[in-house]
Amino acid sequence: LDARAASIVIRTVRNTVDTGRTVVCTIHQPSIEIFEAFDELFLMKQGRQEIYVGLLGRHSCHLTRYFKLLLHPSGADFSDIYKRSDLYRRNKMLIEHLSKQAPGSKDLYFLTQYSYFTQFMACLWKQWWSYWQNPAYTAVKFFFTTFTAVLLGSLSWDLGGRHDQKSQDLFNATGSMFTAIISSAFNTIMVEVPHIFVQSLVYSVIVDAMMGFDRTASKFFRLIPGFMIPGPRIPIRWRWYYWANPIAWTLYGLIAPRLGMRRKK
């Protein structure tokens, strides 16, 4: 956030606190305006060690008074100084007091709990609306998907319709499909599955048409699991990867129906 946006956020937090609620925030290098919006400070140094835990006061008077009273040489360990201070002992006593259960009180108990599935659906629904309200993000992804499809289709124009295909043509087609798989797989989360499906469909239609593959539904939608390198050609120590690599299975499913590859065990 820039300085203005950060100030707006902290002002909103301050208004929430003024209604009687407690808000805990983590801040890094705040401005003086943001810093003095807080009532208490939990100051830590590298290594998660406490330096100061207490009230700030008006214009941070409690904080400055604490450090002014410290008599320390240059390069002193402020964490060690804090652990030997009266402030540290008062905080420990307060924690012990607040940790004791009041007489007649009972632990909180909730009759119902959200299941993992309910939490998952709530998060999925929230993320779905987040994407729906940000069409620019999806539009940019669709643009790059279409652009990549047109680019690769142009580079491999009418490759599938040639009668004098060479091994290099096969490698070119394989490389184009591999690029498609990798580009669609990056930054994919579950809420993007519908978008990725439509993008993949658009991509496949463009590439198939431009590369001259057979325009039949059976070959367009056929997905055969397998691997483009025969199993016996893979070193024995990597043979398990023949079955474990999802990208290879997808790539084989795209190539085999069009170029007549057969899966060998």
Automatic annotation (TrEMBL):
Annotated Gene Ontology cellular components are: membrane
Instruction: Answer yes or no on keyword Transmembrane helix.
Output: yes
Pfam families from the entry?
Answer: ABC2_membrane (PF01061)
Q: Which GO terms describe its molecular function?
A: ABC-type transporter activity
Annotated membrane-spanning segments are: 242-261
Q: Its principal location?
A: membrane
Organism domain of life: Eukaryota
Protein localization: Membrane
**Keywords linked to the UniProt accession:** Membrane, Transmembrane, Transmembrane helix
Q: What is this protein called?
A: ABC-2 type transporter transmembrane domain-containing protein
Q: Which organism is it from?
A: Citrus sinensis
